[in-house]
Amino acid sequence: MGRAKRAIAETAAQAADDEALLSLLAAGLRLQSTDDRWRVSGNTLPHRAALRDAGGTWNRLDMCWEFTGADPTARLAAAIQATPAALGHNSGTGTGASPPKPHYHGHRGRVRERVLKSGAEGLEDYELLELLLFYAIERIDTKPLAKRLIERFGTLGDLFAADPAHLRDFDIDQRTLVLFRALRESGRRLALQKVAKKPVLGNWQQLLDYCHATLAHEKTERFAILFLNRKNELIADEVQQRGTVDHTPVYPREVVKRALHHEASALILVHNHPSGDPKPSRDDIEMTREIRAAAEPLGIAIHDHLVIGRKGHASFRSLGLL
C-alpha cells in the first residue's frame, strides 16, 4: 500500500505540474531552465506584477525574467492566477463570478477593420504603432505602450532605430525588437526602389527621402557614397566609414578607389549628423575639398555632399560650397 500511495501522490504531483505549465503557456509565457536559473520569456509585459511578486528579476540584457532555486512553475502559475494581467488604462475590476470584458475587448478587430476600410493614412503615429504591436504582443491593450514609446522616442523612425538598451526599459522583448528592425529595413528598401538605377538628378526629392530613411536616425556618424554612371543613374550605395557621435574619418584615396571599382562617373557624398543639426562643419568642408581634388583629375565629378539630420538636410551645392 505504501508504494501505491506514493505512486498516486507522484501522479497527482505530476498532473499538478503539467496543469501549472499549461497555464503558463496559455498566458503566453515560455519557461526554460539553464543550470541553476529559470528563465521566463514570451508575453511577459501584462504579467510583470505577478512575475515580480513570484520572486523574478528582469534581465535587461536577455530581455527575460529570471528565477533562482527550485522550479518556479507552480508558484508562477499561482501568482498569475492571483494577479490580474495589466489591461492598460481605465480597466475595471467588475463583480460576480465572471469578470467583465476588458475595455479594449474587440478593439484590435475594430482597428483592423478601420484600416481595411479607410487605409492607414489617417492614423496617428501612436495608432499605427499600436497596430504594429498587435503582431508582436498578444492579449493586452497595446495603446498605452504605443503612446509611451512615441512620447519617449518622438518618431517612429527614432523608435525603430533605438538602442535595445533603451527599449528594455519598456520590457520590449526580442520578438518586438526584431519587428522594429524589420520595419526599419523595409522602409529603407522601399525608399531605395524609388531611386535605384534611375537618374537621381531628376528624382532629387526621392533621393533625399532615401538618404533620410537610411541615415537620419543613426546614433553615430556614417559616411556614405552614392555612385552614379554617365547617365547619373544610381548604380551603387556604400557606407564607407562609421565613426563616433560627432566625427567620421574619411580617406579621399579610398573614396576614389571605390569609385574606380564601380566605374562611376560621378559621386554624391552623404553623411549624417546625430545631433540633428545638418549644418556643415569646417571639417566637413575641408574633407569635401580633398575628395574633389583627388577625384576630378580622374574624370570623377562630385555632384553634391549632403549632410542629413533629423531636422532636415544641407546641400553643399545649394550652399555654394561645391
Task: Write up this protein.
With 322 residues, the chain is of the alpha+beta class. The protein has 3 domains: 14-82, no CATH class; 107-189, no CATH class; 198-315, 3-Layer(aba) Sandwich (Cytidine Deaminase, domain 2), CATH 3.40.140. It has 12 helices and 9 strands. It has helices at residues 2-26, 48-53, 73-82, 107-118, 125-133, 143-153, 156-160, 164-167, 174-193, 204-215, 252-261, 282-295; strands at 29-34, 37-42, 57-59, 64-68, 222-228, 234-242, 266-272, 301-309, 312-315. The strands form 2 sheets. Strands 6-5-7-8-9 form a 5-stranded mixed β-sheet, sandwiched between helices. It is elongated.
List keywords for this structure.
322 residues, alpha+beta, 5-stranded mixed β-sheet, 4-stranded antiparallel β-sheet, 12 helices, 43% helix, 17% strand, elongated
Summarize the SSE layout with pairings.
Layout lengths: L1 H25 L2 E6 L2 E6 L5 H6 L3 E3 L4 E5 L4 H10 L24 H12 L6 H9 L9 H11 L2 H5 L3 H4 L6 H20 L10 H12 L6 E7 L5 E9 L9 H10 L4 E7 L9 H14 L5 E9 L2 E4 L7
Parallel strand pairs: 7-8
Antiparallel strand pairs: 1-2, 2-4, 3-4, 5-6, 5-7, 8-9
Helix pairs in contact: 1-3, 5-6, 9-10, 11-12
Brief summary of the model shown:
The chain is built from 12 helices and 9 strands. The chain is α+β, with helices and mostly antiparallel strands and 322 residues long.
Largest sheet: 5 strands, mixed
CATH class of the largest domain: Alpha Beta
CATH topology of the largest domain: Cytidine Deaminase, domain 2
> Going across the major beta sheet, what is the strand order?
6-5-7-8-9
Give the H and E element order: HEEHEEHHHHHHHHEEHEHEE
Q: What is the strand tally?
A: 9
The N- and C-terminal alpha carbons lie at a distance of 96 Å
Work out the helix count. 12
Apparent shape:
elongated
Report the structural category. Answer: alpha+beta
User: Can you tell me the number of structural domains?
Assistant: 3
The residue fraction in helices comes out at 40-55%
Can you tell me the residue ranges where pLDDT is under 50 for at least 5 consecutive residues?
A: 7-15, 87-98
Rounded to the nearest angstrom, the radius of gyration is 27 Å
Mean pLDDT: 81
> What percent strand?
15-25%
CATH architecture of the largest domain: 3-Layer(aba) Sandwich
CATH superfamily of the largest domain: Cytidine Deaminase, domain 2
